[in-house]
Amino acid sequence: MSELSVGTLSGLAANSYVIDVASGSQLTQPGMILQVVSVTKTDTFTASLATGAFSANVTGLSATITPASSSSTILVRVNVSGGSSTDSPTVNGRMLRGSTAIGVGAPVGNRTPVSGSNGTSSTSGLLMSTLSAETMDSPATTSATTYNFQFFNHSSATETVYVNRSEDDLDLTRAMRAASTITLMEVAG
Length: 189
What we know:
By secondary structure, the chain is mostly beta strands. 0% of the residues lie in helices and 39% in strands.
C-alpha cells in the first residue's frame, strides 16, 4: 500500500478542508464505516424442530454484502422477535456467514454454542421475545458474502418456533406481530 505524507497543503482557501478524490476512488481510514446493508422481515416464519436441533436459515432474514477490501471487518447485528410452542416464549439461535456459525459461545461438553437466547417468564401464547445479538466478523474476502440466522430448540421436546408472531397468533388487538432485522456494516481495516 502506498502512503502519502504532506507537511503543508498550499493553494487551499482559509478554513477549507475539502479534499477532491477522483471519481471511482474512495478515501478511507481504519474504523470508518464503508457501507451498510440492512434487511427487515415483516412476514412470519414457522418451523418444527426436534430437541437440540437448529432450523434452516430463517427465510427472508438474510443479507448479502460485498466487502470493498479483504482487510475489512463486518459488524453483524440481528434482532429477531418470535416465540416457541413449549415453555415460555423464547428465541434462541445463531448467526451464520454462509454455513459457518459466527458470534457463538465456546463449545464446552454437550453445551450448544449459540449467538444468544431470550425468553419471558410468562406462559402466555400471545407473547413474544426478542433476541438481539451482534458480532464482528472477518470474512477476508471481496466476494459477495451472505449472513443468516437460525433458530435453536433448547426444549426437551419437539417444538414449533415462530418469527414475528406469537404461538397463538389470534386475530385480536392484544395479539401482536413484529419485525425482525439483520444489519451488516463494513468497517475499514
